[in-house]
Amino acid sequence: MWHISPEGFRELRYSCLLSVKTCAEFLGCSVSSIKAWDRGASRVPWSVVKLLRLLRSGDLGALRTEWRGWTLNRNGMVSPEGFAYSLGDLGWWSLPCRQAEAFRRDRSLRQRGGGAAVSASAPRRGQTRRTAGEEDRHHQTRTRGHGRDLQ
User: What are phi and psi of 59, to 5 degrees?
Assistant: First the structure.
């Protein structure tokens, strides 16, 4: 069973530059809880230690081993390779993932001789995928009358 000593907790809290009051505010707990952990009167929850380690170093690996090498800092989330992703970048991350999945399916269908290519965009709930030709016709129909006819 895991345990951090009162001295270890205080050292971790000090390394984060947190007073008892500030630590309580950051963790969303009472000042008396922080004081009890400082004295060793009650056991420090593992989640508290993980959050303080994350605050101290920005190392997401402190939360889960799968995130080892990823960090958080003023630039955003930084990959082990050194690429920084801002909040805006992360908001768009699902789009290339969905596109990559559609391209993989399309490639697999083509390799098996399964017919026409599918649209790269993921269908919305209740919709079916269009073939490339259907997608072109759909786009042309939608842009007519808007001064952007692509023909």
Answer: -85, 110
Rounded to the nearest 5°, which phi and psi values hold at 71? -135, 160
**Cα–Cα distance between 130 and 118 in angstroms, integer?**
6
Phi, psi (deg, nearest 5) at residue 138: -60, -45
pLDDT, tens digit only, all 151 positions of the chain: 678 999 999 999 999 999 999 999 999 999 999 999 999 999 999 999 988 988 888 888 877 888 889 988 777 888 899 888 887 787 787 888 889 999 999 999 998 886 655 554 555 555 555 555 555 554 454 444 444 433 3
- Alpha-carbon distance of 38 to 47, in angstroms, equals 16
What residues pair up with 77 in beta bridges, in sequence order? 72, 85
Side chain identity at residue 97, one-letter code: C
Q: Cβ distance 117 to 131 under 8 Å?
A: yes
CATH superfamily to which 1-57 belongs:
lambda repressor-like DNA-binding domains (1.10.260.40)
Phi, psi of 97 (to 5 degrees): -65, -45
Q: Where are the domains of the chain?
A: 1-57, 94-143
Provide the token pair at 133: 């030709």
